[in-house]
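FAQ
Q: What does a multi-component entry look like?
A: The components come first, one per line:
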Amino acid sequence: MLSLIIKRLGIGLITVIAVSLIIFLGTKILPGDAAQIRLGQQATAENIAAFRARLGLDQPYYMQYLSWLFGFFTGDMGTSLASDKPITELIYDRYENTLYVSSLTALIGVPISLALGIFAAMFPGSLYDRFLTMISVSLVASPEFLTATILVLIFVFGIGWGNAVVVGSIEGKGFFELYRHFAMPITTLCFVIASQLIRMSRAAVLNVMNSPYIEMAILKGVPRKRIIFRHALLNAIGPIVNVVALNLAYLVTGVIVVEVYFGYPGLATLIVQGVQTRDFVLIQGLGMLFCLTYVILMLIADIAAFASNARLRHPK
Amino acid sequence: MAKKTTDHQNNDIVFEAKSLKINAIRDDGSELPIVKGVDFHVRRGEVVALIGESGSGKTTISLASLGYCKPGLTFAGGEALFMGQDVSKMTTDELRPIRGEKVAYLAQSAAATFNPSIRINEQVTEAPILHNTKTKAEADKKALELYHALELPDPEHIGNRYPHQVSGGQLQRLMAAMALCGDPDLLVLDEPTTALDVTTQIEVLKAFKTVIKQQGAAAIYVTHDLAVVAQIADHIVVLYNGEVKEAGPTDVLINSPQHPYTKRLMEAIRPLPEAGQGEESDDTHKRDIPALEVNQIDAGYGKIVNGMPTSLILKDVNVSIKRGKTVGIIGESGCGKSTLARVFAGLLPPANGDILLDGNPLAPSLKQRSREELRKIQFVYQMADTALNPRQRIGDIVGRPLEFYHGLSGKEKTQRVHELLEMVELPSQFAERYPHELSGGQKQRINLARALASDPEVVLCDEVTSALDTIVGANVIELLKRLRRELGVSFVFISHDLSTVASFADEIVVLYAGRVAEQGPTDQVLSPPYHPYTRLLISSVPEPRVGWLEDMTKTKEAISGISGAVDINARGCPFYKRCPHAITGTCDTTPPPRQIDKNNHIIECHLDIKDLL
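Then the predicted structure of the entire assembly, as tokens:
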């Protein structure tokens, strides 16, 4: 078990390093260099050379890579090419929005979706199950902006509840105030992640429900609730935590459409801005941050899956 | 007065099926009868066996006593009376107090029936605690008593383990404990020993029999094995295609079967393994050079340290397979039978030793062998169900090796596929079908046809009849004999069933813990002198006679050898702990010497061959 976790940590580390190499080289093979972009077309050759030396761009690639990586892990992501501000400051301005939206979404969306999915697996083929399947499949198929538009139409323009655009400061707001502040993006994102979580938790539990030990539990007269929660769920945790982790990572890194739609600044829009302004340093920093988010969440998911497996916890 | 006796007799009946009918629901909603009006009853203290081949409805009928139908089946008429109540018409909530408490079920595979994530004791005591018939303390006490009664090792602590931490035979007995913990009135046992080795089977049968007697429960015992039935049942009900063909007391039915189907079942029981029953294959195809030969093979799994794998399975194995002949490899599960087959096939390159094909050295690994060398050695897997691609038609499955090895296509290929199907005694229309449209025996024939498609010299058969019913398995053996005679193919026949090997092999290799215990021509191996392990194996094959189990368990081989586990890392003789003749100080410290007599009969034992007679 311990050796498995250590091995898994090692794989995580290798992944991070590999991704850092790809991100670094990726920004290098793009045409144009940072000094040129920062100083513009009119800059003289001397100016550019001096600027390059200041950024360390005159050093060999491996030195640049190492100092960048070292800087990243010591909290110095460099200076933005577009605004001359430190990258950490740019991220600091944005991360709160993303953090609140994603954690509130996770807090509300994950438990509800899992409960709905598991409940569907308890009564496969029932009217409830078929209805839920229909809803979740159509949600998977519809793009985020459509879901958002429909929700805004219903809640904001229909019932007059919540705001179509996120406005105002979040300073000093409590849990419920924060929720009301971000009500529309959170609800939209809940719908987006719910579809996948419902489908996967239903499938994972249903898969276990077909195994002989569940039939045995039925033949022992075990009530349905206990069959699901004591016998089936333990063996379905592995696949479920993986999907949860993937969806949480998406909430941190991939909610561009929702951020733009509701007009609040978050991390996902920040990276889009970085691409638009060809701000390599910003892209590198955020890319690594997103990579770390994925690696850490998947690591937690895998360790949870190991821990739920009796064979790994208690070897022969 | 007379009326009172009848009443008393009726009260004595624990379960009764009255013209019970069960249907399967097809995809289009129509119903197909599976059980067509079955009548039988079980009295208190009685074991009734339901016997028949797969598809006879025996499991379906036994589950009806719990008011349960597998998904896709439905009760279609008649009554299933448990203590006078018709369980087939009760709702799940009404059935809950009966299930696991009054009627308990034991499934074929304990490994699949125990929840891998829950400790054994919780699963054993679950039913009585849930049904409030016992407190947790009472249930734990009962479970402990049962662990003692079932002769489980370390009964005080075994319940704290998880299912994967105990052996298959132990898990099977723990399942019995799970069934008995609620003091049921009726036990339903569904092929509880079929998946076990012969020696383990005896151990489990003995435990079941004792415990059923002690509890005074009634039991329904489902099996296809008449020899096992003779040991445990009082009454036998013979089923075929969802109907009762014959029923009666065990000794009457075994000794004078009346119905033709029962007679066929009796005939399909293989004779006990003895010298002289194997069909001597003729020497038409004989050549001086063996078709396949392995010398001094060591092989195993895991990391290689100092040229040896960390988990060494096979130690110093020599086998030579002559053309048109069959070598049988037997031993308990985990003894290295399949590992040896994987070495032959090149799936597992050995750590030491050479492999020769037609006298020429053969690369140890599959990847380095030429296509021609690959063609000559083919593998037939145990589970035809999983070895055939469910999305390919039979014609494609059998046709693929024809394309790959012989470059056949179009009409030629179709023609050859039909010939191959004919060779395994299947109609050529089968080429258009998918695997799921075939029965188990038919699938195994396709599996064989695919191996034969490349015109191999050696076919490796890994437990090819183990998953089949007696009659179907016997037919497959007949087919193999014919192919050996007509095509001159050599077979390596791996099985844990000594009777099957005895009827088919020219030479037998007895493996124990990866070492050759005994090896030689079939008649030599199956006649004295015996290696003590071979003697145990031979005496463990159940005989279809009442009282055999009691006689067998009194022999000294059984007393010392039945319940031991295989110790693969033993320093001396691996069989030391289970051997009735073990010499302390010699057998446990020194590996046994290899003794060879004039007939090329090898026995590895510290005892002199003369003393093993």
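Q: Is there any commentary attached?
A: Sometimes. For this entry: The domain at 2-268 of chain B is CATH 3.40.50.300 (Rossmann fold).
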